[in-house]
Amino acid sequence: MIVLFNILIIAIVLLIAYWWMDQGFFSALLHLIAVIAAGCLAYAFWEPLAIDVLLSGGGFDSYAMGITLGGLFAIFLVILRAASDSVIRANIILPAAADKTMGAIMGLFAGILTVGFTLTAIGFLQGPHEMMGYKGFGRQRGQPGVIAASGPQLWAPVDRWSNAFFDLLSVTTIHPDIGGAPLKHYNPELYKQASLLRDNFNSGEGQVSMPSDAVNIASLAKVDGTDMWVVQTQFKSSSRDFGRQLVLSSAQIRLVGSAEGSDAPDIVYPIGWVQPSADTGMPATYMFDDPANFASGTPGQNESDMAFFFEAPSGFIPRFVQVRGTRFDLPDATSANPAALAFLGGSNGGVKDNRQLGQPIDDAIDVSKRVANFRPSVNRIPGSMKLTEDNEFDSGFLRLPRRSESQTSRALQVNAIATPGGTQVVQVTVSNSSPAWLGGKVEERTKPEDQITLLDSLGNKYFPVGYYFMFGTELELKLDPQYGLRTTPELPQLSPSQTDQVLVLIFQVTGGVNLTSLRVGHTLVGTMNVEVPPAF
Q: 440 — alpha (psi -120 to 50), left (phi > 0) or beta?
C-alpha cells in the first residue's frame, strides 16, 4: 500500500502542475500566490478557532484540529482565487514555450504546498497511526524520549517541504509582528506532529486533541547538576479520552525550547513520568521505554496528577509544553535537589542483573526450527519475507500480530525456519529473564562491535542468522542467512519495564556437534552441554 500511496501523492502533484501548465504562467502565478496566502491565513486563525472555540471535550474534538486547518485553507483559497479572478481579468501574453514551462513550475510549487498542507491537516484527524502503509514518525522501543521515522517514508515528503516553506515565511517576510509568535517557534515540526498525535493507544484509538482548560501546569523544575527538566501537571476531567480514561503516549507530549530569529527551537519528549500508584498511593516512576507504555489516569477518578521528566540538551531553556498539540504556558522554573524529587525515590519496572556470568545456560537453548506460538497463514506473509517451496521462513523481515490461525489448514500455515542441508536450527532465548540475557553485566563488559558467537566442542563458531521478538500481541522475525546478525546493536531493544518480552536468537548449526558456550566478544555469557542431532 505504501507504494500506491507514494504514487498517488506524486500523481496529484503532477496533475496540479499539468493543469496550471495548460493555464499558463500568469494564471499559475496568481494561483501560487493564493495558495501561499491561504496557507499563511489558515495557520494564523487555526489555533484560536480550533483550540479556543471548538475544543470543548465533546465528540467533535477528535476532528476539530484537522477539519479546521484544512477547512480554513480551502475557504481562504477559494476566496482569494475568486478575488483575483474578479480583479485581474486580463492575461499576460508570453511565448508558448516559456508560458507553459513557467506555468508548470508555478503549478508544481502550488501542488507541493497544497498536497503537503492537506497531508498535515489529515494527520490531525482521529484515525489509525498507519495510513496506506505510511506512519511517518513514532516512538522507538527501548529508547525513551526518542522520536524517529517509523516504517517506509514518502518518496516525495511534500508535508515536510510545505511545512518548511511556511516555517521560513513565519520568521522572515510574513513574520507576525503583532502577536510575535511565528509558526517555526510556536508550533515547530508540525508535519511530525501530524503523525505523532496518532501514535497513541492501540495505534490510533486514543484521543488526538486536548482542550485548553483541561491541563494545569503546576510547576517546572530543573534538576541541579543535570539537564533534566520536570513538568508537574494536573489533568482535569475534560482531558479524559472520549470522556473515559486519559491515556497519553510520549509522542503526544513535548517540551519546546526558546529560539530567536530564524533558528529552530529544540524539542524534547518525556523519558518517563511519576504518578501515585493505584495500589499504594505513593509516587511511582514509570518509563516511556516501550510503545506499550502509556501515562494513564486512575480509573474512576476525574483528575490525575502526573510529573513528566525530560532529558534536554545542554543550555536548553523551555518556552512551553505541548500536550496533544495544545500549548500550555510554563510557570517560572525552579531548581530541584535530586534527592528531593519523588521520581528518584520510587521505581516501577527495570531489570537488575544478579547473574554470575559463565554459568550453565542450557535452559535457554532449544534445538528446533519452529517459531513458538506463531503459525501465520501463507496469505498473511508480507513480500518482505521470502518463503521456501515448503512454506518455511527463508530470509527477510516481517512483523505480524500473533493471532490464532486455528481455522487455517496446516498446509497453508508457516511455522518453521528453513535449514540448509546438514544443519539444524538452534534457538537461544536472550530475554531479560533469561540466563543468556545479553544486557546487564554482559553489556557492561562488551563493546557494541563485539560479535555474538555460539561455540561447539571443536571450537567452531556460529553467528546468529536472525531473531524473533515477541512483544505485546505482535511478533517480529528477521532472517539473514547470508550475512547474519553479528552484534547486539542489530537486535531489537528490550524494554526494562516490559519483562514479558521474548527475544530469541536463531543459529544454523552443523548437525551432530556438541555446543559448549555462548560469548559476546571475549565475554563468556554462559556454558552449555547441548547435543545437536545429526541432520539428514
A: left
